[in-house]
## 1
Amino acid sequence: MILKAPYIVTMEGPVLKDHAIWVEGEKIVRIAPQKEFSKNGEIVDFPNTILLPGLINCHCHSELSQLPESLPYPGSFVLWIDQLTRLKLQMSPTDTEAGIKTGIQKLLEGGTTTVADHMSIGTDLKPLLDSPLEGIIYIEILGVEKQRAENFYQQALKIQKTKDDKFKIIPTPHAPYSLLPEIFAAVASTDQPLSIHIAESAEEFLLFQENAGPLFEFLQLKGKTPPANKETPVHYLERLGLFPDRCMVIHGNYLEDADMTIVSRRKASVVHCPGSHAYFEQDRFPLGFFLDAEINVALGTDSLASNETLSMLRQMQMALKNYSELTPESVLKMATVHGAKALLRENEIGTLKAGKLANIIGVPFRNAGRSAYDNILLSEIACFSMIRGIVARGIC
Ligand SMILES: [Zn+2]
């Protein structure tokens, strides 16, 4: 199939005008001026459209896309966890499956082609495995009581044996405060990129820093023993030798200078979720510090339990609005090139280039007075989506 468009943003160089992308099987074979392609083969013309790399959503929980009621922020992270746990218990497997299917449609609409999706033990992976999307399914391991944590880990190892061509399945620790260190160590002993909620909330910071606050009290009430050292969440993991190399730090909202050094030394990426960040009314995300420290920052949506949308196009708009350091081009880089780096898949995805997977989306070029990057950032919906050479969503 040959895809022709007036504008192609490859993220490998300047915007290409009147070029075409030749896709064979699941890969891109060649990108060249349209006139160099003969009339042979299936040619699809996209007038007034920009083709660009599929967006990489580095953090999502698609299983939370159909909660029985909307979840207004109750004013505290701990109250939110409590509320979410209660609502999840009310959901039947059919509700969860319907939620995942809703989530998949919303992800595709918003430009995601690759997703790093967290799933709980017991959730059926089939709706996601059967979807057009590709990426990583992270099986979340929780538990600060040994038997419970060990049990979850063993179940996750069984789920990991599921064979799939498009998704890797990786057990991952949920967060530093929610998993017993010895099981954390076992889960983290892998060369796969792990995905861990670290330094997400002020309550988590207070728990590790002061052994105080709502999260500390919540864990005590549950009969679980929080860590007894006065330190940051990042320092806690590093001190115990638990900070995995090249992992994804999900959120990373509350870090001190020394934490930045650890994140940088471990070659970790940070995943910022703009919609979820706003929902929780977190302190300002320290984007400038990460950029100064040359730490890779990618984007994610988080779930519909803490974000009004699963659109990555919308996350880019929010990030651009919030941070004067960003331009339309650099924010798109976060959702493509940086996402690929975070998932350790730079050779496969993140840019449009011969030899890479044909993960391509299209958005309308509506405003002739603005650049292609500006037009992308004005788009709410991807009118076209191809994943591994297969059309997943419409024709512009
Ligand atoms: Zn999350």
## 2
Amino acid sequence: MVLADTLATLECSIMNDLSQQQDTHEFIHTIDNKGRICFVNHAWINFAAENGWSVSTEEIIGSNLMANIVDPETRHIYNLLINRAREEGQNARFDYRCDSPDCHRLMEMRIYHNQDSDEVEFRSRIISSVKREPIALIDPTHKHRSDEILKMCSWCKSVWDENTWIELERAVKQLGIMTDQVLPRISHGICNECSNRMTRMIENL
Ligand SMILES: [Zn+2]
């Protein structure tokens, strides 16, 4: 089973093209004390189906969350968050970008630990959603990709260009990749700003 690069990306890939009504849903997944996904709610599964990702609950359940996070720093941050929740009862809350091709979307994630079951629950919801001109670069159905790799922050969707991180909308204009063409592949990581933001947040838990 192929899962997305990061947890945030995983959430993104199943939430494209949400309707207004669906925007009110919370998307929940839970991991057990071995880090395996042990629960996803119907909203989570339904979005997967609506977006052409025909994944069943049976396929998701039992998969290891951390094994699917490619970027080491992002993996490290999630491990810290999970450990703080599990060992110190510190629940985290943070925002992240989770765009669909035609929508600028800000999400909130909350992380809780259930002491009785020793499970950690991740609850995401949409904070804001603003339509904009579609960006093919982040369209998972756009298969016409070159071997060029473009680094993108999983947390804020900024794009790395030579020596700086550029906000997504500005980057596609600046780099001339708004139109339907052969596009670079995306490699997910974390930008300096998000790394600092998340580190500070964890320190202050
Ligand atoms: Zn970022």
## 3
Amino acid sequence: MAHIIVVGNEKGGSGKSTTTMHVATALARMGHRVGGLDLDLRQKTFGQYVGNRARFTAESDIQLLSPHYMDLPEITEDNLQHGENLMDQRLSAAVESLEEASDFIIIDCPGSHTRLSQMAHAMANTLITPLNDSFVDFDLLAKVESDGTTSQRAVGLFRDGLERPAIAGSRQG
Ligand SMILES: Nc1ncnc2c1ncn2[C@@H]1O[C@H](COP(=O)(O)OP(=O)(O)OP(=O)(O)O)[C@@H](O)[C@H]1O
Ligand SMILES: [Mg+2]
């Protein structure tokens, strides 16, 4: 079963696609089978990167280990069962078709809250949240209920590369 890595932060321009490219490529170069999905259906930064990398390797006749990227499959409303959501089905179908041939599936999310992004977060085995080094952005990242029982956890990758403790909003009891 593939390990699903989701790179998300609904704050735009925080470094999600850049992080996705580096993590996906590093895992592929380590010899892992990496499947890739891009849920930013408009920009497709990660999808473009993998396409450019494939073109470059073909043109230069060199071998570079790379992630295997796929677009979300098109599904028509007619193929949905009653109550099924189109975007949920597209994402599930993509994960299903990558799963068998992948050790890791890495998913780049858009810089906004979308149904696809929300569903991907629910599927994540590992969640990476790149974050601008700003308390304003940090404040947007997670909300902890005033009763202290709800927890949200995130791993912060600060863009200046300085080491800081992982951001853990867990306040059980
Ligand atoms: N660690 C970093 N240090 C400096 N600049 C960075 C770093 N990571 C990304 N950037 C730059 O920040 C910009 C936004 O990066 P990127 O496209 O990866 O963000 P994003 O979160 O995917 O954006 P969006 O929300 O639009 O999808 C790009 O110009 C990128 O080159
Ligand atoms: Mg992006």
